[in-house]
Amino acid sequence: MQIGLFAHRRTGVLTGALFLSCALAACSHDQKSVQKKVQTVTVETVKTVPYAQSSSMPGRATSFLTSPVTPQVTGVIQKRLFTEGSVVHEGQVLYQIDPAPYQATYDADKAELEKAQAALLSAKPIAERDRSLAAIDAISKETLEEAEATLKQDEATIDADKAALESARINLGYTRVTAPVTGTISASAYTPGALVTADQTTALATIYAYDPMYLDVTESSTDVLALRKKFASGEYKTDANGNAKVKITLEDGTTYAHEGTLQFAGVGVDQTTGTITLRVIVPNPEKLLLPGEYLHAVVDQGVNQSAILVPQQAVVHDQRGNATALVVDAQNKIESRTLMLAGTANNNEWVVTGGLATGDRIVVAGSQFVSVGDTVKATDATAATDATDATEAAAASAASSPSAN
Fold first, then answer.
1. Is the pTM higher than 0.70?
2. Most CB atoms within 10 A, among 13, 78, 136, 295?
């Protein structure tokens, strides 16, 4: 009985050990199969291509001239003589201020001048007569001095009256408020019947000269220094006056029809931002550009015959802001590269100036499934695209064949 029980227990132990051994073997087999699994990634082979380089500088458009229209005399506006938003010309009358009090002052000053001129007509012959009489001792010296003093006083009165009359004439002219420059005028801040003063700070309206326009762009002092060196070396072309021609990109991404001229107008570095403001003069004959509009000044840098362009989705930035990308090496292992970028190109590509070389295979898809050091299977993106296109073309051909119908 005991021998049978011992044999039964021994059989159970052996069965359990065998089961555990099989389980461990199966687990080991699964781990090996997981370890042997190789991920597939899509790569592009780096090559050099011709690329027209350019430097883009964002900025805001401002008026070539901004001239506030302000009154020079105090009075009540009688008329507004322009259409808001229209083009006005230099010297054009914009407002008529009530001229009546200034006309009265002018008339009074004119009468005073005429009175002084009449007094001078009387004083001149008296002084001349007294000089003749004094020469023969017919009158006293005091009488002669009095006559000459009266003459000089009348002459001085005429000069003062002429100045007063000229001042009155100017003020009377100021009742006709004219445009100081040619341009587009804004809405009027005052209506007829409003009282305006000579010392007010609020403009009646503002005139903007839209052709040409200014585009003020800000660049870091380092970039401006590099830009100056490139112009000085002839790498960037300039006109006869040493100014660079630039293309203008509008807010919607289209290219403006007229080229601008870049002028190095910056005279100092902003200590807060470390930037310098540069100015671009842009023709605006169609009045398409408006003050405050966001634009880009694009400076052509010529054609780089051996540029490296990579898809933007292949590049990520680490916590320090460094641009990195995954590359498949000759042993089909994943390695990480730190890249130097020089801006974006067309078709959502980065311009790479460092970190990659011709022939490198950069991962463009599947990077989220692999880590540095992993062995992968690399599929060329161009070959995959060609295969997909061929499959789609064959399917379309089969669907349109008579047998398919």
1. no
2. 295
